[in-house]
Design goal:
heterodimer, A: alpha+beta, Thrombin, subunit H, Pdz3 Domain, 2 domains, six-stranded antiparallel β-barrel, 19% helix, disordered N terminus, disordered C terminus, B: alpha+beta, outer membrane lipoprotein receptor (LolB), chain A, eleven-stranded antiparallel β-sheet, six-stranded antiparallel barrel, 35% strand
Chain lengths: 376, 597
């Protein structure tokens, strides 16, 4: 995250300064809401109705693997009565089919219609009709200081027909997302709505950010952490940024700017080769993460890794594919320790490898030409 | 926090610009300068929030261990000092605690009752009979989106004991948070986005109007270094209300199981997949493959929902269950079994309190001011000596959190016997001459110390039950569940008193027969027979009792009506006898001989 802390503080201050004004504008839109706080009846009931109506349009998404305590779950929202669902592009969608659970507990198989990794966007389809949905044409662009609600299945708290979680907050700033480091390398670098509530949690991605009266404003983004300050970024991608691509995907006229499986790297981040690892070619949907070769004089050879070792865990995360291993390596920060568990014959072997200072230096060490010239 | 220089400059420039434009505006309008007024609605909402905080804060308790260490919160609910908190707070602090209120005063406190499964504990503060208290609300009336306030002592910031207030909304209701390593289970709980942090444990969740709706105790802390992550969980006050009398009685409370396993089928229905044939549910007719339609009056659409409902009731409560078999619905009342064995309940979980600040926890270290209390220690250290004047308020007895409070509650419930008169002085057997209403025949009961008998219809039928250690406890007369044994236990209580039972304790309160008024329960044991004496919670009147000959058999249920004077002492005019969900018969008392010498 390259937004400096000082600027964020300043923007928060601005947001707070504006909020009474925003509240006033909101009151003008909905005059019946102006009621003294002591007489909360009508305000509360309208508020509850708004929350109920938004909740009906948000879905829970579970990856087909459904392994316990792996974040193979996320959120999404309906954008057509025929079951088109917008969600975040993530490894939950590794399988061609996922399970979608509606607000009423009905379960459907969800099929990926299209994706645009540069927008962190994917569109799913379930076979259903007459569903409640968000009309993307009615999406709004709330100002900084506006009060907002976020809806998502964070922490997988809801599973069946339970409603998703609702959080409240204020838009702290509108800014460009420039998260370009390690785990928080994000392909998306367009405008985002930064919020002061802790909206971005495991499973929150693909949820919705709405105004207090339930108007769709954004899609809740991925979890992003600043490794230096250990602070987390809470943001949503404005619908205005996604609308065209969603429309094109649904219409079948979409050409992705990038291949989902080969999303371009925004900045240098760790690759298997940085550790002296060569993985088997990623040929199928879930290629098992076998080590094809280990470069001599590399960190992997120092750790006595061998060809044909199967990587099972990276830092306690179960690794299901070559792609997931690449993702996990890319999440590492300089100074971290890479903890692997590999299977060799019938033995499980734990290995610890210190992560190099920078991805580039490591690659030089491994005599690999630096293909990423971007400065940090 | 010092802002970086560049941002300081930024703010200054902005201020300068603002003042410049304000100055020019003022000049333009030729009117005296004034600060722009805030929106009236914003100000009134703010004033309402301040009022709620001022109303609620005096009842919030900062809980410390006896040595001043600790890390928990609580809330006062009675003027004589009863306060709710989390079990994982008291289990770390020990039987005696120090409690701070926002008046800056520190009070001694003792453990009263605990609910290890539900993570609730009741403590009593000493020193006042006019403690400020929270008003208990109705958590079933909450809606997602409602405002709420969490109060407590997160990160032990309040060295003057005035609580930290965090404000948020209800994010979810009826959440199920399964056991995490121990038998702690949060069922039907309230999810909030108000910050819940280490040290908030046991503190109150207040509704928008300042009513107590929950006890904060948990959060989803994955990946965030054990600090708030936007999802905190509170135990609903409505669940706690079910257990409150149990807790006041110094009990280690247990939760319940139906004795049957359920699963969700593909069509969304919840069906019985396994059932213990020793369970009451089985005896009432529930079988494998029956579909559970509703439980305790709430419809069942998922296994989590079923667990949610089951989790909010104490062991031993009777609840209605509606099941569907081949399209036909049937309602039964089932008394719930205990979730744990007694031996499991008396063992203290070895775990550290879930939200105690950890030494070496970076955020915690930073948040703690110099001189602030140190993080709590594990409970199993050598016990510090209790404060001398309060030592008598702790009576240790296996199976109880604090038997002192059980004795207090026993004495309260037993006051219901006073209206009946003195049955202690006569020593001979009782002779009760009654009329069996349905059969329209005379019924004569003779109840002695070692033998009880019933003669029906002037000798056409006779039944007897020996009452000593060797005797077989029989179902006499048949299909009553052991009426003679039951009446013997009743006489034993009146003629010999509670001390004459091998076991006698206050067992909390419950709705009479699953749908009636709340009754206090006194549990008694003599030989293998167990009796639950029932007293109306409101009036204190003794209204009946259930006697079980043995475990896992249906009890003989006796209910009284019309307390009338017989031969110098009061006794019920009518006895209604039930067994296994059917009425066996009614006996109308005509005359009584109490065995006076």
């Amino acid at each position: 995250m390259s937004v400096s802390r000082g600027v964020v503080i300043a923007l928060c201050g601005l947001g707070l300064a504006l909020s009474p004004g925003a509240g006033h504008a909101f009151a003008q839109n909905a005059p019946e809401e102006v009621a003294p706080a002591t007489n909360e009846g009508p305000v509360q009931s309208r508020h509850q109705r708004v929350i109920e109506q938004v909740s009906r349009r948000v879905v829970k998404i579970f990856g087909a693997g459904r392994l316990k305590n792996l974040y193979a779950y996320s959120s999404g929202f309906l954008v057509s009565p025929q079951g088109h669902i917008v969600t975040i592009w993530s490894h939950v969608l590794d399988e061609q089919e996922v399970t979608v659970v509606l607000h009423d507990g009905r379960r459907f198989a969800g099929r990926i219609v299209g994706a645009e990794p540069q927008l962190d966007l994917a569109v799913l389809k379930i076979d259903a009709e007459d569903l409640p949905f968000f009309d993307l044409e009615e999406a709004v662009s709330p100002p900084v200081g506006a009060r907002v609600l976020s809806f998502s299945n964070m922490f997988k708290v809801a599973t069946g027909d339970e409603p998703v979680s609702v959080l409240h907050g204020v838009i702290s700033s509108r800014t460009r997302l420039m998260a370009r480091r390690g785990v928080f390398d994000s392909a998306y670098n367009g405008p985002v709505l930064v919020v002061d509530a802790i909206t971005n949690n495991p499973g929150s991605g693909g949820g919705v950010l709405t105004t207090r009266d339930g108007m769709l404003a954004g899609m809740v983004g991925k979890e992003l952490r600043n490794a230096q300050s250990n602070t987390w970024m809470n943001y949503a991608i404005p619908i205005s940024e996604l609308k065209t691509a969603i429309g094109d995907i649904i219409a079948g006229t979409f050409t992705p700017r990038s291949n989902p499986l080969e999303a371009p790297l925004a900045s240098p981040r760790f690759l298997p080769i940085d550790f002296g690892l060569v993985l088997v070619p990623d040929v199928i949907q879930r290629t098992p993460a076998f080590i094809d070769a280990v470069l001599p004089n590399s960190r992997a050879s120092d750790a006595l890794l061998k060809s044909n070792d199967l990587v099972l865990f990276v830092n306690d995360q179960l690794i299901q594919s070559v792609r997931m291993l690449r993702e996990e390596l890319a999440r590492l920060e300089p100074g971290d320790t890479l903890k692997l568990v590999v299977r060799r014959d019938n033995l499980l072997i734990p290995v610890e490898i210190p992560v190099p200072e920078t991805a580039r230096k490591a690659r030089k060490r491994a005599n690999d030409p630096d293909t990423h010239s971007e400065e940090e | 926090m010092t802002p970086p220089p560049d941002s300081t400059g930024f703010i200054t420039r902005r201020h300068w610009l603002q003042s410049a434009s304000l100055a020019s505006l003022t000049a333009l309008l030729q009117s005296p300068s004034r600060t722009p007024a805030a929106d009236a609605d914003v100000l009134s909402e703010q004033a309402a929030r301040v009022a709620v905080v001022q109303k609620c804060a005096p009842s919030v308790v900062a809980i410390f261990g006896p040595g001043g260490g600790g890390g928990g919160s609580g809330v006062l609910i009675t003027p004589d000092g009863l306060a709710l908190t989390n079990f994982h707070v008291t289990s770390g602090a020990g039987d005696f605690m120090k409690c701070g209120l926002n008046n800056g005063e520190l009070y001694d406190a003792v453990i009263v009752g605990i609910d290890p499964t539900g993570d609730v504990a009741l403590i009593k503060l000493f020193g006042r009979d006019d403690f400020p208290v929270a008003t208990l609300g109705n958590s079933d009336q909450l809606a997602v989106g409602d405002s709420c306030y969490a109060m407590g002592n997160p990160f032990l910031l309040a060295t003057d004991f005035s609580p930290t207030v965090t404000y948020g909304i209800i994010s979810g209701l009826h959440r199920y948070q399964g056991p995490a390593g121990t038998f702690l289970e949060y069922t039907d709980c309230i999810q909030v986005d108000a910050s819940i942090n280490p040290g908030n444990s046991g503190g109150p969740l207040f509704s928008a109007t300042g009513e107590l709706v929950g006890i904060n105790g948990r959060g989803s802390f994955e990946k965030r270094g054990r600090v708030n992550s936007g999802a905190g969980y509170a135990i609903s006050i409505n669940q706690i209300k079910h257990f409150l009398d149990h807790l006041k009685g110094g009990l280690i409370v247990d939760h319940a199981t139906l004795g049957a396993a359920v699963a969700t089928r593909d069509d969304g229905s919840v069906v019985v997949t396994n059932i213990l044939d020793s369970s009451e549910a089985f005896r009432r007719g529930l079988r494998v493959d029956d579909e559970i339609a509703s439980f305790a009056g709430r419809p069942i659409r998922s296994v989590n929902q079923f667990k949610n409902i089951l989790g909010i009731y104490p062991k031993g409560w009777k609840l209605p269950l509606v099941f569907r078999r081949e399209g036909r619905k049937q309602e039964i009342y089932v008394r719930l079994r205990g979730l744990h064995r007694q031996s499991e309940m008396t063992l203290q979980p070895p775990e550290r309190p879930a939200e105690e600040p950890r030494p070496g926890d970076k955020d915690q270290e930073k948040g703690r001011k110099p001189g602030a209390p140190k993080p709590a220690r594990p409970a199993n250290r050598a016990k510090p000596k209790p404060p001398e004047q309060y030592a008598k308020f702790l009576v240790e007895k296996p199976g109880f959190a604090n038997f002192h409070f059980n004795q207090v509650e026993q004495d309260r419930a037993l006051r219901g016997l006073a209206a009946w008169g003195d049955f202690r002085t006569p020593t001979g057997p009782w002779k009760l001459t009654a009329h069996a209403v349905a059969a329209d025949v005379p019924a004569v009961f003779t109840l002695g110390d070692e033998l009880c008998g019933l003669v029906l219809a002037d000798g056409q039928q006779a039944f007897a039950q020996e009452t000593n250690a060797e005797a077989k406890q029989a179902d006499e007369p048949p299909a009553t569940g052991g009426l003679l044994l039951a009446l013997h236990q009743m006489r034993w209580l009146l003629a010999k008193g509670p001390q004459a039972f091998s076991e006698f304790h206050y067992a909390g309160s419950e709705p009479l027969d699953g749908n009636g008024p709340l009754v206090d329960v006194l549990a008694a044991e003599r030989f293998t027979a167990r009796t639950r004496f029932l007293f109306d919670r409101q009036s204190g009147a003794w209204i009946g009792f259930d006697t079980e000959r043995d475990e896992d058999v249906d009890p003989c249920e006796v209910r009284f009506e019309g307390l009338t004077e017989f031969n110098g002492r009061k006794f019920p005019k009518l006895f209604i006898v039930r067994h296994a969900d059917r009425e066996y018969g009614r006996f109308e008392l005509r005359a009584a001989n109490w065995g006076d010498a």
